[in-house]
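Subject: Sanity check before I submit

Could someone independently write out the structure tokens for this chain? I want to compare against mine line by line before I put it in a report. The sequence has 345 residues.
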Amino acid sequence: MYKSVIRPFLFKHDPEAIHHSIVKFTKGALSLPFSRPICRALYNFSDPKLEREVFGIKFANPVGLAAGFDKDAKLIDEFAQMGFGFVEIGTVTPKGQPGNPKPRIFRLPEDQGIINRMGFNNDGVEATVERLKNRKTNIIVGGNIGKNKVTPNEQAFEDYKIAFEALFPYVDYFVLNVSSPNTPNLRALQEKEPLKQLLSEVKKLNAQKDAPKPILLKIAPDLTNEQLDDIIEIVNETQIDGVIATNTTISREGLKENAERVEEIGAGGLSGAPLTKRSTEIVAYLHQKSNGAFPIIGVGGINSPEDAVEKLKAGASLVQIYTGFIYQGPGFIKDINKAILKAGL
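---
Independent answer below. Compare away.
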């Protein structure tokens, strides 16, 4: 029903506008009496064999919602009813910011993809903390943090520090986002020395806590193998807890969509099925070259249950979905978990 009726209706409307409408509808619908048990009955699938312990955290299942969908922590309790094993909020910046000019989300239906240039639009860390204080469920929550657009790279650590300190009591793990293509010069922080310095400083902050939280790094799919080798070296040197591979890509290779329309859309990160192969290659490369030295969360182009299984076989410990969730609907989480169980992973 989702693919045949609901999705065609949703896709007739502006992507960002319909996203906000879905957030409001989901919030309202799941506040009605008996709606949550019905939602759980429809979409939850649990089995002890799906449970995972990764970087010291116990996950009910390995399927999470990637950062970007619930930037401001508005739907954590609702997503807990849909069967996710964890939800990653953000990217959260110290101050709220509007992001890039609209329109800034574009669907590519023929490619089962999306191009976005949102630009870290969010309400800011203080507003997000207030929502996290009121959450009712105990689903695992990751805090994806970044710097404000106006903050120069030389002062980036101060922004990451503010977001880290504010979110620390309310999230289970942290992700440093230095790989979004939609904030000017942000990806320069992926270069070896700036990245090593940033991670080291955040690790120092974390070490001062009574119970440190896992720290992960989210990387771009556009890195070369030499740069991936640097990532492995940096992870080993700084002793952060893991890597999320990957963010969106700036590549437009192999798209079925009309070339003129793609050019007209312009800049932005491409997600969805066109990213499947490259993202899985990076998961496999990191896992093999590091001899499995650190956990990897595989994200990017998971558009079918088989794609998720391939990520896990390539070396991922957990997986995340976003664009596939939009194209496949809420039953997608259950389908992935069933496939993982069937594969014996």
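---
OP: Matches mine. For the report I'm noting this point. The chain has one domain: 2-101+120-249+270-343.
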